[in-house]
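FIELD: query
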Amino acid sequence: MKKPLILLIAVLYCLQSFAQVPVGHWRDHYAFKQGLYSAAGPTKLFVAVENGVFWYSPSTGSTGKISTANGLSDIGVSAIGYSPYQDLLVVGYSNGNIDLVFNDQIVNLPHILQKPMMGSKQINHFYFDSNKHIYVSTGFGIVVVNIDKREIKDTYYIGQGGTELFVNQVIEYNNRVYAATKSGLISASIDDPLLIHYASWSIEQSLPGVESEFNSLAVFNNNLIVNQSTGSLMPDVVWYFDSFAWNQLTNNFTQVGSIAADESNLIISSRQGIGTYQSIPGPLSVLTAYTGFQQFQPNYVSIDNKGNLVVADIILGMMYNHDQKWTQVSPNSPEDDRTYFVLPTNDELFVLGGARTDIWSNRYYPLTIHSLSTNSRWFTYYNYNFFDAVRITPSPFHQNEFYVSSWGNGIAVYRDGAVVDAYDPSNSSLETILPGAFCRIGGVAFDSQGNLWASNAGVTNPISVRTPDGTWKSFPYQGIINSQRQSDIIASPSGQLWVILPSGGGFFVLDPGDNPLSTSSHRTRKFKPFDSDGAALPNDISSLAFDRDGYLWAGTNEGVIVSYNPHRVLEPSVFSFQKVKIPDVVQGLAVYLLESETVSSIAVDGANRKWFGTLRSGAFLQSADGSNQIHHFTKENSPLPSNNIQHIGIHPKTGEVFFATDKGMVSYRGDATEPVSKFGKVYAFPNPVRPNYNGPITITGLVDNTVVKITDLAGNLVYETQSLGGQALWDGKTLNGKRVSTGVYLFFCADINGEQSAVGKILFVK
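FIELD: result
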């Protein structure tokens, strides 16, 4: 499978603001800080991270990144390699997938990924021979790829009796192919026509530790270098073969990650640092640190064609040594890929890196808040006094203040990039299940009066309130709620507070009335969902959202249910939920919306359409009433890194949809934005429209259901449409489907009642 490679766009998107991403385009928001593997080309240096590859050009200082958002086919990178032949970068993955990255395209080789087998398919290393072949070290043997034909040529099973064997690395030495495996160093004559037959391969009996694991190979000064791995904190053993006998390097290295060599130096990366030999068995020069950097963890080292070191460092990303000076390279990104909850605001994006386990216990992740500013700079905040943050809620009183719900430490107040205050049983009405860090907050919500309500799981008084004057009070609703698994709390448009009771508990609803501190003004109800006929509906609730019509949508373990009169929830005789029927065009029968899915998240876009995240099947965009599917994004058909969607958030101004998954976060520029109440700044993007742009042109800043007419300067109607929320789209074509000519075009906007209007210009260059 071939995909176009859009490296330039990848670089530009790193620097773009929210509003500058074209509709229909994806961005990755992966961590590019933890370098795992490196490779060196003549003009670009490469480092792989878990979810992609980034590059650095020493001559220009430019950087870029490649991921599923711009061409790679997978995540879980486990090896990279570079060949000057066709300027080829090869990317391998832990599931066996392989991408061949050329200058103008990416060719996917899914053959190993699709291979039916029980053992490991992991890609461990690439070795390029002089015959335009790649020797791929895998979890089951050696695979040979023909670069010119973009296909697999041979597969070698070199275990005893032709069985699978985990191969870490392959290299050529003295007309033999050597394979470092988990069960010894194995070799065969490179001229043997039957390399495909296991009998052609033999274990190196003369090497001490004959059946140990060997993980790294290099050739230096006509010596074969091999590392014997202990797989622990005990020192590894580095051996060298001088064509006659095996000898041991006297220096000890712990957890050797790689060995690299050129004509002048042998480089060994290990837990202690980077060791350099200029002769064998000459003296060792150990680089225990990079100048100016106190923390380091080199994992893999390569050497470029000028003898400079390219280090993949787990803490620092890429470290490049040139003229005895170290340069750190790390693209703008979050510090890690933990994403559990996402909150887009007008000015900033906040992502929590917390979590709970599936059985509602703790993971003990430190409080992690990734924030993306409007100038597209990432900042990651860690606080080790709090853990397992599950929700972040904006304050109605301070623009840069947020309340973070912790599944163990109460509530943290986050302001201007740091925690400035906290609430727990020592200074509030919040309670703990057991002594210690068991103050579990499922979420907080502000009502229209500015009162902060907290869902406090598993305690005697599970609902707490903090009034604007700082008064705290809790309420003894445990007898009603009766649940250790008490989740998020959401304020409704009518002033009620809805608490999710997962695992079959249904809902708890509180109407605080006129006095939030007095139970005498409270009205409450705990119930499981039912339809208008009183029939039970799925009651394992996982997500809630009110739409623009005030309807309540709930995600369950059996799809979606909706209430069209949630404001009447305290009137059992008239209130109800119902499933959403979807016409089955194949069977002619009615089925129900996502009835086989656990719906983990619901987000409503500016056109009142519904985004649904699921735990197994990716994300769905449905029409406003839920009946029609507009998009279904999965790991298999989109840049999503996983089908396990933790949360979805939509940027109100741009319509960019952020998908937090268990493998990291990506975003998709949707075609609907939040409408404005009256026309103000109405603009088109891109403007001007360049000849090489074929995507939609957006007109943004509109009121709901704006009618948009596009004309030429003579007043001839070119196109007409209606906005999706606050945004309208034009494909750059006339009503007859013909691409418009170069020129200036006018867009006229009017609300549906004809009471407001706006006008603007678009320069089109064909």
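FIELD: remark
Confidence is low (pLDDT under 50) at residues 6-16.
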